[in-house]
Specification:
By secondary structure, this protein is an alpha+beta fold. It is built from 25 helices and eleven strands. Among the domains are: 92 residues, no CATH class; 58 residues, Arc Repressor Mutant, subunit A, CATH 1.10.10; 160 residues, Nucleotidyltransferase, domain 5, CATH 3.30.420; 163 residues, no CATH class. It is found in: Nucleus.
Amino acid sequence: MKYDKKQIILFAKNKDPLLEFNKPKQTPKSSPFWSSFCQVSFNKIKQDFIRCDKCETILIHKSIHGTKVMSNHIKACKQVKESNTNVCALSKNSNSTQISSQVKKLITEACVEFASLDNRPFETVKGVGFLGLMEKIFFAGQQLSRFSNIQMNDLLPNPTTVSRNVDQAYVLRKEQLIKWCESIDNYCITVDFWCEGHTGIHFGGVSLHHIDQNDHLHVFVLGCYPYDEDDQKSPNIRAFIERILSEYGLKLDNNNYVMSDNENKMKSTFGYNCKRIGCSSHYLNKQLEHAFTSQTIDKKPVDCIEVQELFRHVKTLVTHVRRCHKQLKLSRKLQMYSDTRFNGAFYMLNVFLSVFDELFPVINNTHLQDYVSIDKDFLQQICDFLTPFDEAFRQLSETKQPTLHRVIPLRQYLINHCEIESKDHDGIKKLKRFLRQRMENSWVLDDEHYLATIVHPKLKHFQMAAPGDKEKAIRLLKSLVQNEIACQMSTSSSIHSINQYPMNNSSCSNHSKSLEGKSLLARCFDQVSEPMPLYLHECEEYLNSTTTMNENENGDDEVLEYWAQHRHRFPNIHTIARKVLAIPASNTEVERLFSCSKMSVTDTRTRLDTEKLNKLIFLRKNLHSLKMSDAKEDGRQKRKSTNQYESDSESEHEGEQLTPSISKKRRIEINNGLSDQDGLNE
């Protein structure tokens, strides 16, 4: 039941226990204004009101109002000090105040017509490509303002022209990426396959990960190619991947890595002439999937009966509500369970929990038994227990920062999280016991996981790890540093061994010979210790160093910045860090290609062939990075030419001048918003 403002104010004045003020759940799309307001609810039913946290004023607010009510109140609220008006500053900058409300209304109406007439999602107006298109049109309008007879149709290209220019832009950017690949010394690729539902065509995606000499992480998508081999056996898959790599001048060898899922087919495909690392997200997700859906594993029963029973009831109700088109009666859209989505059970259960009290009037009589069979407190405990798993998936799926060093501490944290407490529900105890055992036995760790952890200055002491992990990591690090120095000495044709100071029994025999004929007291003197081998010295200095590491504004570590500052102090460990930190913890980058391709291939876009789809995905994923790289290269060329000009000018005779010639690369500006006709073959 909905109440008016006078009634809500009266309830608040009388401190009615049914009146609640709750903070909405924050998402990446949530407005920052909500940090200063609470949603008003009465008897668990959300009302069309909000309350200011500062002055406790009740305001009318509906979703159609947006944030205008909140922003206007913050400006007028006397309890908000001027020093605390950062929220208001987030939405209104100095430039936006110069735009009249009439102009903004005109643009808003045009966006509404655009979304309605062209049947486009509302999120289109926030897209990077759409904003870039608007900037170009705005610039063109400034240049053509003196002309009065310009028609928009004269500016916009034909859909076929857009399609043709996609091909040209793809060729240009692919050549740029091929040239960049010539300079890399080691890398990791991520690989995965999927089947497109509309056409039944199988696709294979490949991404490239590399940390350059300046300790910058680069991630590029090499493509999302249609799989055209006869079958999906490991030799054909290997040939398919090697053919893609050969287009960029790359090949698999024992110096490079492959990140893939943990199917036997992938293990066989990349079991030789390369180093395969298993996807940690798949390891973890598979155990959660078994806990909620599997009856037996390896011919042993899965003892999670209570959890699986609740899961089935929730899944049945979610399916019923979605099929009956009753979603509009709920405050949130229910999520179906998907075994291909990481932590899919948590998303379905958590959303269901948030609307649990709203479901009773929505469900018909045939499903009431499922509803009353659900213990809300038990459901709450499950969601609370799974929340750290969801955060772990997000940490492991990061693509803009190194992630392999996070695997061991997050794995151990989740294992510790499964410690059974006396207050736990019996079903939670069984779930914890099962997941702990599965994570300890089935989540495989490779040597690279230990190395990535020990080269992180805030994780090198392995405080969040299993016993023995630190000792194993130190042995691996010392061995690799020793090999690194040996390779350097062999390439420089040095005749000395890596152990310039050999640690063998010959020193003991020499010591015994030196004591012959000495007095008894002389035999008791302290002996000069053997110098520490070079590789041990660098390892010990790094392990004992207490240098702090910076954190960014989000609280994330800047491990690459640390190694950029200390690469000369620990050169051999820095080389190892560049290799292992380039390996992602999961193959999320390729997984996201599939979502991207699903948005491109729709029922109304049936003429888009596989080759064009690959080009669109390549540009979508790489265009921004390659443009940034292009701009940096142009800047270096200009500085180089300017410096050369100044240097040559100084050497010239008086009165003579030398004009530098600065080469400019050909650029092709493209739009990301393509027509449904862009699959035409010219």
